[in-house]
Amino acid sequence: GPGEAPRRGPSLEDLFRGRSGAPGGGGGRGFGGGMPRLPQRPDGRSWLPAIAGGVALIWLGLTTAHMLGPKEQGIVVTLGKYSRTIGPGVSLTLPWPIESVTVRDVTSIQRNTIPEGEAEKLMLTSDQNLVDISYLVRWNINDLKLYTFQLADPEATVKEVAEAAMRASIAEVPLTDAMGGAGRALIEQNVRARMQAVLDTYRAGVLIQGVEIKKADPPQKVIDAFQKVTAAQQDAQREMSNAQAWAQQITARAQGDAAAFDKVYEQYKLAPEVTRRRMYYETMERVLSNNDKVIMAAPGVNSYLPLPELRKKAQAAPGAAPAEGGN
């Protein structure tokens, strides 16, 4: 009516109180039964400030204190910008999101096998042959700041640099050196040096510990033919070795004969006629000892010498003498 006081809208407290006390509230749940109320402290105050303070303390403890292991380092970023690097032990920072810490293992050796699995990685040697290479690269983080911010994907960069360095080193050696022996060790040293030089140029913060070639074989499609060629080369090498050994024997024999001739010649100079006759007799003895018949054309000498018959008689004579003595 005209004399009534103006009506005011219900406050938020009135709404909650009204809903909690409304009939059919269903025990004070949902919009039909009111909002659940937190239990009160003994002094009648709410637990909400204490809960909020506890959450704040936990948040501060988790985001300000950092325990790093002996092999770890951490990058501290303040509002998205690099601030500092922290080492092993306990370190304190401002709470997140003001400062955040990224922790990485910088001491352990990382190992990358190229290619992964049983894939084929063909490379060209200096003598225009293809070789299937599989190798292992060992590296670790040398500068965590550079490793984190300088490259988008440091691990992928290490693999790409390793492949480029390996191709360059394989292209400098022939197939035989690439497949084994001292040539393989030289390739590993060259690859490591090339990789380190390139990564230092990139400021990657990576230290290459070593490169190890695990496999260096001909391509799978031609491996049978390559094995046949290798077998033929080994046969040729064996024949060459035998020929060299035979040549050394012949040379040694010729040198011995020359030395003997020099000795004979020294004796010949002292007594030419005697030496000449002795050489003649020795030569005739060596020649006639292997002949069954000898025909001589000399005056007053029987032209036929039955050497086999003479030998038989000479061998039979010693056996006949004891028989006669027994009779």
From TrEMBL:
Residues 63-230 form the Band domain. GO terms for biological process: proteolysis. Coiled coil: none annotated. This is Protease modulator HflK. It is found in: Membrane. It is a single-pass membrane protein. The keyword Ribosomal protein does not apply. The keyword Transmembrane helix applies. PANTHER family: MODULATOR OF FTSH PROTEASE HFLK, STOMATIN-LIKE PROTEIN 2, MITOCHONDRIAL. GO terms for cellular component: membrane. It comes from the Bacteria. Its main location: membrane. Residues 21-35 have a biased composition (Gly residues). Keywords: Hydrolase, Membrane, Protease, Transmembrane, Transmembrane helix. Belongs to the band 7/mec-2 family. HflK subfamily. Pfam families: Band_7. Residues 1-17 have a biased composition (Basic and acidic residues). GO terms for molecular function: peptidase activity. Residues 1-43 are annotated as: Disordered.
